[in-house]
């Protein structure tokens, strides 16, 4: 393994051609605010200019990783850091060694990558923040609608079952304690599958989006979750032609009907 970084003083002076190349790369890297797309564009550039076989990025803080290509035995590892802090670690590889000139060219390319990757990561963090309920840590209404759109699209393409469960925790709605909400969210996660997606619509209302789950499975899940959270529940299975709005309306209407039936009894 080769781990090498060069101080700025040892780098060659930029020529007009080199500056134009770096400006072109910067423009392409800043075209997207998705970290994956930025790294894919950077990988494509290095495959052309340095014939690298693979690129791996690891975010040391969050444990996120992305690998492009197939790793070879000659590696260069770089710690990505800017004035705002760590950006993770970047590893590139190919089947033969890198000359000093090529290592310097890689350093210059990484200088261009840093601000583009930082912008993408900051934008993603901001967008995720707008989709999370800060009191429970679960997805909010916006996140639910986006997840419904994606899952309904998958249903249309792959003809797979999809169900939505709603839970109304009336006692929790009255308390509105952050600690109680967090505890309910943890309990909800404990009694659902890893593939299920969890959301909080209001203080006492939670929704569980269940891929690959027909109505029968949703009934069992609703009963189990209702007991664990002491909640009143309802469910709905997605139907052909459903939109996020129609599926959500159907499960909420089912919840209202169940409540009215209990009150009448």
Features:
50% helix, 8 helices, Alpha-Beta Plaits, 5-stranded mixed beta sheet, 265 residues, Beta-Lactamase, 4-stranded antiparallel beta sheet, 2 domains, single chain, disordered N terminus, alpha+beta
Could you please describe the fold and organization of this structure?
- The chain starts with a strand and ends with a helix.
- It has helices at residues 16-29, 35-49, 100-129, 141-158, 170-175, 178-190, 215-229, 244-264; strands spanning 2-3, 54-58, 65-69, 74-82, 85-94, 162-168, 197-202, 205-211, 232-237.
- The chain has two domains: 2-129, Beta-Lactamase, CATH 3.30.450; 141-264, Reverse transcriptase/Diguanylate cyclase domain (Alpha-Beta Plaits, 2-Layer Sandwich), CATH 3.30.70.270.
- By secondary structure, it is of the alpha+beta class.
- Strand 2 and strand 3 form a beta hairpin.
- Helix 1 (16-29) runs parallel beside helix 3 (100-129).
- The protein is elongated.
CATH architecture of the largest domain: 2-Layer Sandwich
Q: Helix segment count?
A: 8
Mean pLDDT: 86
Structural class: alpha+beta
CATH homologous group name of the largest domain: GAF domain
Oligomeric state of the chains present here:
single chain
- Helix percent band: 40-55%
Taken from the alpha-carbon principal axes, the silhouette is elongated
Sheet of most strands:
5 strands, mixed
Biggest β-sheet: strands ordered side by side in the sheet: 1-4-5-2-3
| Radius of gyration, in angstroms, nearest whole number | 25 Å
Q: Termini distance?
A: 73 Å
Count of all domains: 2
Please write the string of helix (H) and strand (E) elements.
EHHEEEEHHEHHEEHEH
Provide the low-confidence segments as ranges: 1-10
Count of individual beta strands: 9
CATH-defined topology of the largest domain: Beta-Lactamase
CATH class of the largest domain: Alpha Beta
Range of strand content: 15-25%
